[in-house]
TrEMBL record:
Pfam families for the chain: DegT_DnrJ_EryC1 (PF01041)
InterPro entries xrefs: DegT/StrS_aminotransferase, PyrdxlP-dep_Trfase, PyrdxlP-dep_Trfase_major
Protein name: Unannotated protein
BP GO terms, sorted: polysaccharide biosynthetic process
GO molecular function: pyridoxal phosphate binding; transaminase activity
């Protein structure tokens, strides 16, 4: 699989600071207007809803099963767009969504926040398979911002606004230190990033009483204003050795999978599909199982996190597999 370099991309791409900003533009291109509805999976981060609310629309949730495939896509005359998610960089089967969009004349948006560098079994890069797609590059690379909107529909691409001006801010000390710690850690196996995270979280606990910052309900309704990413972030994207990063992630997935083979967790996926570049290693388990996993993967310099921070409307009736999903994050 040959991955396109940044310089080879077409004018169908636009870059933003964050994925939710790219999603706002995607919704506008899909002609989602105030009072309309957007179909979105219930298994989703709450800040995705801020993009929907920004354009004046209402989210309508559909459920996903333990394979993270849609259970049922409800219909309404007010629905103007459907969001399909490539969870953790694994290609979502889009056929049910294509069928739905053809039947009800709505636009499909491929949420590929986790899938930078990942492709389906046919070698098509994720985020490029639907009329509209978004990819949050900063979630795969250690950069403060950087997200991409892709428009493959010719008519919609003609409506694309100009690229927003790039921000002149530098990467910042935090990100430069993370990059250096990461390089040293991979060479020496000294857990510099884990030590740094522990110090930051202890400081946060002393100031706020919480080790990890959680989103509030306000994150769902925050007005999202699209801005361009930092020029320094874009330069880091251009410098990335894509093939090396793909190799690192796929090999790390195999090593983590082997390390957890006899643990008490249930992997979300039975195997790594061809052309998939994993965002991490997702699994189902309780809190104690997640702690055991962290101990088992510490030697790889990676962290176990809970995902996602569910929307408030979903939490009360969420099935177990929504609240028991964890991720060995490969960042």
């Amino acid at each position: 699989m040959k991955l396109p370099h940044l310089n080879e991309l077409t004018t169908a791409y636009r870059y933003y600071a964050y994925g939710r900003q790219a999603l706002v533009e995607a919704l506008r291109l899909a002609n989602v207007l105030p009072g309309d509805e957007v179909l979105v999976p219930a298994l989703i981060c709450k800040d995705v809803l801020s993009s929907i609310h920004t354009v004046g629309a209402k989210p309508v949730f559909y459920q996903v099963d333990k394979t993270l495939a849609p259970v049922l896509l409800p219909n309404s005359s007010l629905i103007k767009a459907v969001i399909a998610v490539n969870y953790f960089g694994f290609a979502q089967d889009l056929e049910p969504f294509f069928d739905y969009c053809r039947k009800f004349s709505v636009k499909l948006i491929e949420d590929n926040a986790h899938g930078y560098l990942s492709a389906n079994i046919d070698g098509v890069l994720l985020g490029n398979r639907a009329p509209l797609g978004i990819t949050s590059i900063r979630k795969t690379m250690r950069i403060p911002d950087g997200a991409r909107l892709h428009v493959s529909d010719k008519q919609l691409s003609e409506l694309l606004p100009d690229q927003l001006q790039l921000n002149e801010k530098p990467l910042g000390t935090r990100y430069l230190l993370q990059q250096r710690f990461s390089k040293v850690e991979r060479l020496t196996r000294l857990p510099l990033l884990r030590w740094a995270r522990s110090i930051v979280r202890l400081r946060r606990f002393l100031l706020t009483g919480e080790f990890i910052t959680t989103s509030t309900t306000l994150a769902e309704t925050e007005v999202v204003v699209p801005v361009g990413p930092r020029e320094s972030s874009m330069k880091e994207i251009q410098k990335l050795d894509e093939q090396a990063e793909v190799k690192r992630r796929t090999e790390l997935y195999d090593r983590v999978s082997s390390a957890l083979d006899k643990s008490k967790i249930s992997p979300v996926h039975g195997h790594l599909p061809e052309n998939c570049t994993p965002y991490g290693f997702p699994f189902f388990g309780d809190t104690e199982a997640a702690k055991d996993v962290q101990r088992l993967v510490n030697r790889f310099g990676v962290e176990v996190i809970r995902w996602p921070d569910l929307p408030e409307a979903v939490v009360a009736d969420a099935p177990d597999h929504y609240s028991n999903i964890w991720l060995v994050n490969f960042l």
